[in-house]
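To the team - pyridoxal-5'-phosphate complex, inputs and output below.
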Amino acid sequence: MFRGLARAAAQRHRVPWARGSGGRAGIPAHVVDLRSDTVTRPGPAMRRAMAEADVGDDDYGEDPTVRELQEKAAELLGVGQTLFVPTNTMANLISVMGHCRRHGSQLLLGQECHLHVYEQGGTAQVAGVHSHPLPDLPHGTLDLAELEKVLRRSQGSSYHPVCELICLENTHSSSGGRVLPLDYLGQVRLLARNYGVRVHLDGARLMNAAVALGVPPSSIVQYCDSVSLCFSKGLGAPVGALVGGPKDFIEEAWRLRKALGGGMRQAGVLAAAALVGLTDAEERLGQDHRNAQRFAKGLRELASPFCSVDPSTVETNMVMVRVAGLRPEELCRRLQAVSAEEEAQLGRGVRVLLFPWTEYSVRAVWHRDVSAQDTELALRKWELVLKQLGRP
Ligand SMILES: *Cc1c(COP(=O)(O)O)cnc(C)c1O
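Output:
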């Protein structure tokens, strides 16, 4: 359902945006792209680092920039070792394959989590692992009693699949970038230990969680047996992710990456971008979170019957807006179109790009390519659209 909505919106967005078409007055419209934090383009510093990266054949372990990234990341995450991989999807799949050594073993995870919904069921089609999805609570957590029920059932009976792994997601994307509380992570770890299963953390946006909590990422990762981290989201790199865990786990992960076709050669060109992304992560992600918070508060002040938002649920870089009285697709279409009225009022056309999230909500995501000024512009555009809607 979400995918259908997103695809329809993407098709609609593509035409005017790709052409970079101007407003009526001939001034190019200003684009504020809030569709995802994957849309960032590498800036001059990142491109320079990529161009100047020291490289070698990483398949022989000879790329100094990849090694530097892997070592720095291991320290940052507080794990024995890390491995650079092309995507977070591959990082998750490698982790599942590394933990679930028995064909047909069971994986427990949230039914809306990325690994379950958006990764082509790779855990089933490639890893031969059977997923048992549990309902996600509004904060992005799982019900611990429910989790224990499934673990107990799996352990006590030869009629049920053998459970080997629990996967968590932090920040939790489908709930709007919510941060998993540390005591919850501790409780999941305790349960996992009691039942002899391991915990993998899909930390595509782990750095957002760490910045929001004001803790080093290692104090989140300490509750997990492995972790993934994505460089092409808020960290702004064009490509790349990593898997982290104990040394022997990462040695096995190296073989699995090879099997999946993810072994790379002069990958230092990509690792250099990831290193730049990590360097200023704290400052940049903090700014994204403040912009998202500012937007949520500004939108609430507009007090429109068409859109509502609860700023207390905005913990990181995402804002979920509840839409009533019109279809989310229609709202997105209006926010993207340029009117003569806004050119008169704002001095130029502003295209705000967004995806409908469900039939009654849209999701806005902040990232490096959306400044505080862009956020104000987006709010003013939003205000104009809501005013137009409010007319009889
Ligand atoms: C984007 C994302 C992934 C996948 O990352 P890719 O690098 O696009 O494969 C996995 N998990 C979460 C939570 C994500 O947001």
